[in-house]
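User: Hi! I'm working on a homework problem where we have to compare a predicted structure to a textbook description. Could you give me the structure for the chain below?
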Amino acid sequence: MSSNKGITVFSGGSAANSLVDVFDAIRENKSCLLSYIIPISDNGGSSSELIRFLGGPGIGDCRSRLVRLIPKFPPSPERSAVADLFNHRLSSSSSSEAQQEWYSIVDGTSPLWVGISSAKRELIRSFFNNLNLEILKRARPPQSTFDFTSASVGNLFLTGARIFTGSFESAIYLLGSICSIPDDNVRVIPAINSNFSHHIAAGLANGEVVVGQNSISHPSEPTAFAGLSSDRDREHEGVEDATLPGSLPTLRKQNIKFSKAEEEDLPARIERIWYINPYGQEISPPSNPKVLESIKDSQAIIYSIGSLYTSIIPSIILAGVGSALHSSPARHKILILNGSLDREVGPSAAPFTAFDFVEAIVRAAEQSQGKPWSGLSVAKHSSLPDLPQQHLPPPDQAISATKATILRQYVTHVIYLEGEGAPKMNRSNLLDAGIECIRLYGRRIEGVGDNGNIFGKGMKYDGPALIGAIEAILGRKGDSVFGAKSRRNTLDAY
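Assistant: Happy to help. Predicted structure tokens:
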């Protein structure tokens, strides 16, 4: 392992997976360790069923990153087969069909095993068999049985390994070893190292509270905070599962299904995220010590693209993280701004701007340290013509020198894209705070409206351009910035 200080990336799962090659190129060029900090608060999809039936953390994002990190070069048929196995989802048609598919994996007859050596196959199967036994032991038919519908095979393996070893961290190490991920170059670090579930809640500007990560980002039903005396709560009390008696109903749902394509607006902006216990009370869990070590030994901190309030901020609000970011020797703390807007940074009538993204990160870091954050007043907002007047700050108020200093302690650079569907860039406000802004040209993401018209849903980063921008910030001017002829590979610094 190189003695150079490393790079720490705060990210979630699927969105940041598209930038793994970018971050790997930066790591290789800087000859340093790359660490991904991943939240464990996911409670949607098949993760909800694992949590309900077996307990434990939300492991989907960690599994997603580990499998994405499987080396592609030199080409290896076995590594490709392992990736296909751990990326596979069981049938979504019916629970019985998914269960039969699972049994074929457990008994070794599934075609997914083709291309995987017998030694590795039997090692993986041993953990599948251990998990299968655990599922049979905990079943209480007909009231409580495990629903395999759409279950991620990789999530099932991580859960089996965690239960067998008694350690989530050991399960991650095992999956990384099986996937041939060089742990002296790259690490996947769960934000909380725990064998227990950790859930989040969001407080909205109108006073409402939304419980659970899935309800915050991709609701499957109305998301208002449910009262503890509801009929659904009483129904759950007759079911024996891995959740504590009296837990909030929204945290005990079975196999939550959702669509990322269709999102209802939140009724108001998210103001704050916090962790809750199963009864809905706010708690302040400590961060994984390895997260703090990574931050303290980094030359750069990167806040990656992804869902702001469910992928990035859940790792920042943990006790110890804000202080570590504040005192980190890293000279560069870079926000890669999302190329599109989602439910979490709405509502659509008043979407987040680049400045709002920065302030949300700063608020989270201050919250981690128990410091109050009253928000900032911004004087210049000429770049935000779409915001209703009631959402604009008074024009005679400016960012104070004190609060500008606070901003720079957590974010020093913002890399962004301009285009239809992308967050608005209020560059002058960020420059007033001493935050450098770097504009890149990317690819347009298109959608089709109900009337058949094509519209811009957002922008997508061009890999070489993003590599060049980050290297320019870190002090190494790559060919992708200065030698490229493509318009996409051009950046503008302000």
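For your comparison, note the following. Confidence is low (pLDDT under 50) at residues 222-234, 377-397, 477-490. The longest strand covers residues 4-10. Good luck with the assignment!
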